[in-house]
Specification:
Blueprint (H helix, E strand, L loop, with lengths): L1 H23 L7 H22 L5 H15 L2 H13 L3 H30 L1
Helix pairs in contact: 1-2, 1-3, 2-3, 2-5, 4-5
Length: 122
């Protein structure tokens, strides 16, 4: 039950951060806020994963940071709905760029986060 509380606490923090980014990066039609949080979250989760596998953070810390904060900060569902909205609004080029950027850049950033973690943390 304590672990659920850690995830919930982290989730509240991550959701508030996500909302803050969406206010700061108000959209001009392109979902910059969602792309940004997903890229940042991918990078940071790579670092958290290395820290956990190297025993530098506890399972509880990984739960609050990875599952809680970063899980609520990043958003696949918003990405999906924004993509569908762009297609429905005849913004096909923007939708394709958005999907490609998310599906290519985010895994690269997760890999980069992993390598950063290995280099500077491990």
């Amino acid at each position: 039950m304590q672990q659920l509380g850690l995830v919930a606490l982290g989730g509240a923090i991550g959701a508030a951060l996500r909302y803050g980014v969406s206010i700061y990066l108000s959209s001009d039609g392109f979902p910059w806020a969602t792309l940004s949080v997903n890229m940042i979250g991918s990078l940071l989760l790579g670092i958290v994963a290395v820290a956990l596998t190297q025993g530098l953070i506890s399972q509880d810390a990984a739960l609050i940071l990875g599952t809680g904060i970063l899980g609520a900060f990043t958003t696949m569902s918003t990405f999906s709905v924004e993509t569908l909205n762009m297609f429905q609004n005849q913004q096909t080029s923007s939708a394709i760029i958005y999907v490609a950027a998310t599906m290519i850049i985010c895994p690269i950033l997760a890999f980069l986060g992993w390598k950063i973690g290995e280099t500077f943390i491990a």
